[in-house]
Amino acid sequence: MRSAIYQSHGLTSAKAVLAQARFVISDIDGVLFDPTGCPVVGAAKLFASRPCALVSNNSTLTAKTIAKRFADGGAYISQERIFLAGEYAVSIALKRFGSAPMLWLASDEIGELAEKMLNEARSVGETAGILICRDRTLTMEHLERIVNAVRCGAEVILANPDFTHPEGENVRMETGAIWSAVSCQLETACSPVLVGKPETLLAEEALRMLGANRREVVFLGDNPDTDGLTAQRLGVNFIHTGGRNGFPLAALM
């Protein structure tokens, strides 16, 4: 696998790697969206320069919503090129459990998708699977239902392992924190099916969609611990972009 390229390698080196890449896989928040959720300078130029695919641990929105946000800011990318942990987790749940009864924690947008595709359990005891995405309406009652369903043998699909995500100057709780609250109540260890980065499921889907040779791909991300590790596991170059310590996208273009 190739070594990741971090900021210590210098802007000139990073620009050269991006210029040579025929395809780009990129994170979204912190790289292509600023803290207000608007496209950063350089996003539109990047999308127009070569085939791109976006992969994100976002578990509250759908690709359609993300694509519209880019379009509203003058950066155009089709929703088919956007792979999100929450949306993808619903599709994995459908493949894994079919019509078997399920419980889920999710935002309104992902919850609506789950209602269309999955069969909601009427009781804890009949629950075959559990889908955990970010849910800002989470209550103790919700957590207790999940804990008891897992104790009864239900399998868990976790949209991403993140404990927090940045929102301006603050941090918000993520799905990993929800799972931590659940798992500490279990008598025996339970390993959920992980969907988001640093697992490579989303990035592998992006590669297939692009039809790209890994040697021709560069991965842009603001978090070396997740994005950088995903790139390393995938065997593609990585440029630390955005966030507090990465190169601004505009400087790389």
TrEMBL record:
Keyword terms of this UniProt record: Hydrolase
Coiled coil: none
Domain of life: Bacteria
InterPro entries xrefs: HAD-like_sf, HAD_sf
GO cellular component entries: cytoplasm
GO MF annotation terms: phosphatase activity
Name of the protein: HAD hydrolase, family IIA
Organism: Sutterella wadsworthensis HGA0223
Lineage of producing organism: Bacteria, Pseudomonadati, Pseudomonadota, Betaproteobacteria, Burkholderiales
